[in-house]
């Protein structure tokens, strides 16, 4: 894997799990998403991982909502725009495939089924395979989400079966600390990194909840990139809630700077990921 001087910081501002009622500061409207994206880009983010909400602030995969968000973010920022194909645990597989119709730069592609708290996040091999091929055909760059060590093996199987993704790069993101997935510990992260197939060109990591900060530090120390955001963590420090996603990006950028791998530009992120200019 080539070494990169800078750090890719991805912001995942919303997710599908938290409710606006419980977290009024969660960006759920198009206006809030655009404001968040602009602020996070200024703070050092170069990619945004998006889940979209409807007028009632509920997760939606409605094409109009997705397309409006992709278009608005392209217009107002130069961030790499990644749409979630994971959606919520309640979204049907067929509908999750239609996310590609909104023509994002990138899409998430989770490499296996995982227990997800009391729910199951379903990703059968046939679904992953269809999504992989459709992303290739539509020139969308997947980010492979690895919630567990078995997902690393499934990624290798996908690459063997279908060749490289569009753009020729393979970027993965370890999502650690989900109850039911790999723990958010440096040991688990390093185990995952050590298993990555040779085709992988870059990796990032995030930790859910209280594992957010230690996993960011571990990822930087191990040469990885960062994902932060309210999708993964809403507590900035003990007793201090996150008020705005920008705070998490700012802290990630400070950490990266301290580690002498400052936040990379959106142009460098596009080159790293193989995303179209
Ligand atoms: N909301 C989770 C069930 C993704 O975005 O691809 C799945 C998830 C992963 O967040
Ligand atoms: Zn997500």
UniProtKB/TrEMBL annotation:
The keyword Transferase applies. Keywords: Metal-binding, Transferase, Zinc. Pfam families: BKACE (PF05853). Its cofactor is Zn(2+). Gene3D superfamilies: Aldolase class I. This is 3-keto-5-aminohexanoate cleavage protein. The lineage of its organism: Bacteria, Bacillati, Actinomycetota, Actinomycetes, Micrococcales.
